[in-house]
Structure formats: structure tokens, C-alpha cells
Amino acid sequence: MTRIAIVGASLAGAHAARAIRAAGFDDEVLVVGDENHLPYDRPPLSKQFLTTNADDGHEYEKLKLRVTKEPGALDLRWRIGAKASQLDLDERALVLATGERIDFDGLVVATGSRARLLPHLLVPVEVAGRVCSLRTIDDAVRIKQLLPSDPGRLVICGAGFIGLEVASSARELGHDVSVVDVAATPLSRVMNREAAMAVADLHRGHGVDLRLGVGLSTVATDGKGSRVATVATDGKGSRVAVGLSDGSELTADLVVIGVGASPDVDWLEGNGFDLSNGLKVDPTCAAAPTVVAAGDVARWPNELYDGQYMRIEQWDNAVEMGAFAGTRLVAALNGESGYASFAPVPWFWSDQFGQKIQLAGLVTPDSQIVIGKYGDDRVVELFSNQRGVLVGALAWNRPRHAILARQLIADRASLDDAVEKLAG
Amino acid sequence: MSDQDAGQLKVVVDFDLCESNAVCMAVAPEVFEVRDDDFLYVLNETPGPELVEKVRESAERCPKQAITLEASP
User: Fold this and answer.
1) A358 to chain B: nearest residue by CA?
2) Which residues contact A282 (CB under 8 A, 6 or more apart)?
3) What is the pLDDT of residue A236?
4) Residue A352 C-alpha from the chain's centroid
5) Chain-chain contact of B23 with A358 (C-beta, under 8 angstroms)
6) Residue B44 sits in a domain of what CATH number?
7) Per the domain annotation, does B65 fall within a domain?
8) Residue pair A383/A406 in contact by the 8 Å Cβ criterion
9) Is A356 on the interface with B (CB under 8 A)?
């Protein structure tokens, strides 16, 4: 019998499984996941999951991926709540945290990423339960439980998509919200300044206290410890005091840390892989002859972008790359050669205060706005490389244009052609 | 989706779930269109066999899992 092991009961892992079956592989497919849940959909965790009142069990049912709703359909074996702690590539074996060894013939690495913590942040035990990150459904349940029933106060560290979506959800629930980020604009890693400032205006217009260019110094409830600079104000340790680098202080019922994620690659160490910023794979998603990777954990050269290495923490990439890697792995196990390259146009969406923001491809300094202007309800901005080829599109409440532009990017259309097709 | 041997398939969109992300339109423009009013329109509710694979792909790729394929009576 041949066995494919998928490490990561994740979106990428689930779509790899689907593709593996679709490619005709009918031996064992074993999925190992360290969360105590079958694969589920993460994007709603910062949005509807926080704002709806339904009990969490029911919400979880709604988040479960289709693959898991029909457990018999793909005939997968699940090892849920099991952490892969080591890969023995030479022996083609996984070692679980329990010490159990699992042999495999093919491997899909789909362990995703983990919420990054603030290394300098000292969190006293009294308030440790009130300082959260948001990555998993368990994190989201915890945040939901900690949100006060009466309007309370949240401090969100990090003006990235997760932080801003939590801010939007918390405002919708009536809480006071402060968002703190050291950068001068929100979304500074992904967006151009003009669009980012429009996002800032959106949040301020909805009452978010957005503090940019300000770092976090310390979170504390008492004066113990050399790095503790602030104290809780209510004397009971039930609220968190957040000291900022400009000397000001915020108090909060709940602090959410949203400062990005790190690829979960520790278990791959010792096999000669390049693990700097994710598992480096070739253009076909392969790290070794029958080892492929997909989703947040993988870094690959995207040939559509001149072989630029990308590691993408986005929903759609997990779906597409998972499926691609699964197909690729079955081809390798069948002894085929001449694999295609994985060369997609990255694409994601974000919902904040009822606005749908979508970005396809990359943002560059060369751009042209073809619909509206920032501050309007609807904006479409196109981005080109120095050769005048369309490489990115940002759409604000224009999903149709985002998707059409995505196709034009894939077709390597010129900016001029794209402007003509999408303007108006 | 036990539609392997079904004769005619029907595309069903749960519009309470649909957020008009328009992924389906990218995969199967013959069947799905998100128009300038931001709503999704199903252009062909009973796509022929040549489109079934694309529609199935649209269903799998939908970020809201709002699309299903049902056997048409």
C-alpha cells in the first residue's frame, strides 16, 4: 500500500486531499492536524464569527470545510489533535509529538503559520488571559468570551487585516476600539499609501481610535518586573493597561495582538531544507522528489512575476496551491515528469465596515486609477511594472473588476489595455 | 454532491451566504456573472455536461461555500 501523509488539517491540506483523490490516487491519505478540529474556514473568525450570537458549536459547524462535511466522500484518515514534531526525510517518516512514527511515500506540507507574538511584550499572569492573538477557532472563541456584554474597550496591536477586521467587528458590537501600529499607515506591508490612508479614514469615520506611528511599550497589571511600565487602573487586575511609546496609556478589557504570522516549519528542521521565511520549494511546489508544500508555510518562485519568491498567507492561495501541490504529488508518485509551474495571480479580499477591499497581484509605484477616487464608495486602481505590464489591481467595492483584472494580470495584459477594458 | 451519474445538474446559490467575491465568475464565466450592482447572477442554472467540471470547481473555490450542484428532477 502507498500512503500520502498531509501534515496540516488546514484549508491547503483539505484542497490537497481533494486534488489527490481527483488525480486518481486511491491508496491511503492520512491527514495530521495539531488543532482539535477538522479543517475549517478561517476568514470568518475575525468577521461574522465574532459578531453573530449563535452558540459556538453551531458556528463551528458552519465553518467546517466541505471536504469534512462529507467524511466518506474522499475516504481520508484523520489524526486530529496530533502534532508532527519531526520529519525524517531519509526514512520517509513523520514523528509525532507522542513519539509515534508514521511512514509515508508522499508528503504534503501544509502546516500553515502561527500568530506572531511580540517578543518584547511582558504579560503578567494576572492579565495573560486577556491578551490574545487570533489565528484559530479556539482563539476566536476565547475572544468572543472575553468581549464584555456591555460596551467595553479593546486595544488592538497591529493595523494589519486581522487587526482591522477585529476592529470593525468590535465597533459593530458597540465596543470602544483603539488600534495601535508603529507604521505610519495601516496595512503598510501590502498597500500603497493612498489606499492605506483611505482605510485609515474609513476606520476613523467609524469611531476607531487609530494610533499610527506609535509602538507598544508594555502590558501589565502591576509594577513587578523590570519591563513593566504600567499598571491596571481598576486595582483588581481585570482590565489591562497598555503603555504606548509616546507615553500615553490605554486601558482595555481585551488586547488583541495582530502583528502577522510566522510559518510553522520547526518540525522540518534537520533535513537540509531552506526554512528561512517558510519552506522553500521549486516552481512546481516540490521540496524533495515526493514532498510538496502549499499554503502559508511555502515559499516558491512565482514565474508569472519573473520568479519572485512569494509566501502568501491568503485564503485563495491555500486553495489553489493546495490543489496544485496535491496533483503534482500524485504525478510524482506515478513516476511522471515535466511538471507545470505554479504561477498564480495572488488575490485576497477583506471586509471592514461593510466595505469590500480586494487586491489582485502586487502593488507597485506605477499606477492608474480607472474608477472613482479614494474616499468614494467605489475605486479601482491598476498597477504596472516598469515595462508597462499590468501586475496588480486594487478594487474597493468592485469585485467584478478585481476578478476581471486578475485575469488580465494572468494574461500579462498591458496597463493601457487593462485601463481600456476596465475603465468606466 | 452525489452527482456523478446524475443526468441534469442544477446550480444552486445560497444568496444569504454569497458575498459577491466573484471567484465563480473567474472560473465559469459562462454560468456566473457579478454585475456592476455587485450582485451575482446565475446565467445558466442547468449547465450542460461540458460545464459541469467548471461549475464544480467554482463551488469548491467559493470563499463562502455558497454554491452547490444538485440533481435536477
Assistant:
1) B21
2) A300, A301
3) 56
4) 16
5) no
6) 3.30.70.20
7) yes
8) no
9) yes
Least CB-CB distance to B21: which of A70, A320, A349?
A: A349
Radius of gyration of chain B (CA): 11
- Domain membership flag for residue B3: no
Indicate whether A342 pLDDT > 50: yes
CB contact under 8 A, A41 and B65: yes
Q: What is the pLDDT of residue A240?
A: 85
Whether the CB of B41 is below 8 Å from some CB of chain A: the reply is: no
B54, B65, B68, B69: which to substitute to probe chain A, counting the most A Cβ within 10 Å? B65
Residues in chain B: 73
Q: Which of the four pLDDT bands, split at 50, 70 and 90, describes residue A119?
A: low
Contacts of A402 in chain B (CB under 8 A): 22
pTM of the entire predicted model? 0.93
Report if residue B57 sits inside a domain.
yes
CATH class of A125-257: alpha beta
Intrachain domains A3-114+261-333 and A125-257 with the same fold? yes
Nearest to A162 by CA among A257, A255, A258: A258
Strands A298-302 and A308-310, bridge-based pairing = antiparallel
Topology (CATH) of A3-114+261-333:
FAD/NAD(P)-binding domain (3.50.50)
Contact A250, A178 (CB under 8 A): yes
Total domain count, chain B = 1
Is B1 within a domain?
no
What whole-number distance in Å separates Cα of residue A359 and Cα of residue A185? Answer: 17
What's domain A354-422's architecture? 2-Layer Sandwich (3.30)
Predicted local confidence at residue A245, as pLDDT: 83
Confirm if A279 and A299 have CB atoms less than 8 A apart.
Answer: yes
Parse chain A into domains and list their residue ranges.
3-114+261-333, 125-257, 354-422
Alpha-carbon gap: B35 to the closest alpha carbon of chain A (Å): 7
In the numeric block, which cell numbers belong to residue A232?
Answer: 491596571
C-alpha cell at A22: 481527483
Cell (9 digits) for A3: 500512503
